Amino acid sequence: MDKIKYVGIDLHQSTCLIAVHDEHGKRESEEIVETNAGKLRAFFDRLKGNVHVAFEVGTQSAWLYEILKSLVSTITVCDVRKHKRRGNKSDRIDANKLANLLRLGELKAVYQGDQNIRKLRDLAHGYLATVSDSIRTMNRIKALYRGWSIRSAGRDVYYKRNRQVWLSKFPIAESRIRANLYYSQLDLLKEQRKEIKKVFLKEARRYPIQKILRGIPGFGPIRAAFVIAVIGTPHRFRTERQLWSYSGLSVVIHSTSDHEIIAGHIFRKQHKHATRGLTRDYNRILKMVFKSAAVEAIRKEPIKTLFRKKILKGIRPEMAILSIARKLAAITLVLWKRGEKFSTAKMISSN
Q1: Long-range contacts formed by 336-339: CB under 8 A, 24+ apart
Q2: Rounded CA separation 247/280 (Å)
Q3: What is the pLDDT of residues 157-191, one digit of tens each?
């Protein structure tokens, strides 16, 4: 019978520290290996037995996952932030801690997807980065005009047609030079944004589910592409609540001192102190997609009527939008699993 081995990898750009434990938690070996595909394969080829590997999610985790998935029994790519570090910290300590937590079953795996979905995911992150850079540059332009108390409300300040008029409002040439620099950056980013958007949407069209997702209220080609890129497969989520939690749309309750002693007997408090709020550990892209889709969807039927009903019940607008975002997330999950198109009639009958 093959011996079971638990391996923790502390992954860095140039080197990896690899700690190997046996099934009883005894440290068998430690080795520093160059972060190189060939050398990592050679190390695990030499490692005999039933090998289980764990390493933290990060920039290189998807790359390492693809390298090792055919060489070991299981791979757990994890987020260890919930396991607070105490005392000293080093690569050696981190690798051994990962191996030990893996043996104890304390690590929760983070979904990695496959090589095909990674193409779409890389394009999604590239598109978001370009949009973010564009917004940052636009904010710098507005800040420059505000610095001279020049009113620049609206978007006219960004357009080429009136750019010389806007530049002439600066009292000194140095500010005009600085503004021209920002304008050049913005023009380049706009062209890059168009190009990567074109490639991103072309790649998304390879997935048949994209047509179904685009039929959901508030969804368009961009939001549908983001959902496919991030989720990968709907079967990751058994219930809609799991998707809500992953998307930052679920409400969590924290309470403390839940019990009290009365006449020598322990009772649960009737009025205990509790705080409510949205989960803080979530995927930022999905939350952006579902909440922005909800804001878009309330402008048209049937979501417009649903939103009004919630407002008439006394629900605050921001909570009503959150509720609709959760509804859209649930619809996304159901339609994706069933391969069905969105039906307004079915949605109205379910409310």
Answers
A1: 336/209, 336/212, 336/213, 336/231, 336/234, 337/234, 337/235, 339/209, 339/212
A2: 10
A3: 999 999 999 999 999 999 999 999 999 999 999 99
CA atoms within 13 A on the CB side of 7: 28
Q: Indicate the pTM of the whole model.
A: 0.82
CA distance 162 to 166: 6
Whole-angstrom distance, CA of residue 81 vs CA of residue 143: 37
Range of the domain at 337: 213-249+283-349
pLDDT digits (tens, 9 = 90+) for 230-289: 999 999 999 999 999 999 998 766 666 677 777 777 877 777 665 556 677 789 999 999
Same-domain status, 82 and 130: no
Residue 271 within a domain: no
The answer on 194 and 135 residing in a single domain is yes
For Cα atoms 173, 177, 183, give the angle at the middle one, nearest 5 degrees. Answer: 140
